[in-house]
Specification:
2 copies of one chain form a homodimer. The first copy, chain A, has 4 helices and 8 strands. By secondary structure, chain A is of the alpha+beta class.
Chain lengths: ~200, ~200
Amino acid sequence: MLRLNRTSVTAWIAVVAVIAGLSYVLIGAAVRPASAQPNAPAARVEFTADGKLKQPVGYRKWMYIGTPLTPNDMNDGEASFPEFHEVYMDPESFAHYEKTGKFRDGTVLVKELSSVGSKEAPSGKGYFQGEFTGLETAIKDSKRFKDEPGYWAYFSFGHEYPLKKEVSKGAVASCNQCHETNAGKTDWVFSQYYPVLRAAAPK
Amino acid sequence: MLRLNRTSVTAWIAVVAVIAGLSYVLIGAAVRPASAQPNAPAARVEFTADGKLKQPVGYRKWMYIGTPLTPNDMNDGEASFPEFHEVYMDPESFAHYEKTGKFRDGTVLVKELSSVGSKEAPSGKGYFQGEFTGLETAIKDSKRFKDEPGYWAYFSFGHEYPLKKEVSKGAVASCNQCHETNAGKTDWVFSQYYPVLRAAAPK
């Protein structure tokens, strides 16, 4: 038999409530990554045991940063990157970029390619997206790519569907030379073509 | 004096724990919108007391759905919507779209305009984004816009900076006619130019 007065019971209830409340706060904090989009899924980029990059997933829900366009009809019928380049950045690295203006170790950029589907629409003449055609990825990783200039490596899953499921960086080593030469001052990223990035950087 | 045996105290604690647990679930559900990006901030679109739309904020962290481009140089020097149109959708409505293929009541689309900054880059000839120049919004709301075709209303905050802080829909009533005529079959949205939307819809 346990003897408790009302005060004791109330105290017990209060203790349990505080513990429950703390659990809520702590569990919430653990689930929530330090992201530009609170509680967005963590960037998932996976490599095979022999160092190939698996095709990224979920990137259309990352941070959109811009859309360069190199249409085939302006590049002798065959652009190097046909044609719309929708570029995304993993949200955690974007949050870091917002604070620091820097691309953190681990930054992942995904460039999804889509065709030009139409050159005229009710809004005027121009270029309008058609279908997805390709997928490329740039990753900055000072450990995994310690021998690459700027620690950036580049991966292409192809420019037509079906895309490759996993690719090695070796096939696209030339990427780095162009990025270093033309965008070396902004850490290998062509920020000049991305107003979203420029607006997000600290003033 | 209240007499309780250990079983009673345990029962009390259990009841409180269940209530706390339920609170966690309920509060969590309330805080957490049904979003493509779990726990992303809710879409914030505010109106003034007299029905003007305040300039949306935070939309660059919404879901990106596409980038039509109507360059001035392909539209007699002055496109109706100059020039890149980066289009975003509020994440909660996107999550609904993923499940149903429908634009839910309350859907907000933001079209941010940016200039053509360059027509040649290391990746080839084409169109490359310059600076932000304009902002437009389309909202589907069967209560607020019950008299509009499809319940969609359109707002333009201007095509040059500084943008207007708040605008009424009246100034852009002509939008609806064009959207209804040319995109009426897909609920006033030009889905044909948005592969991200088409890929997200249920199969």
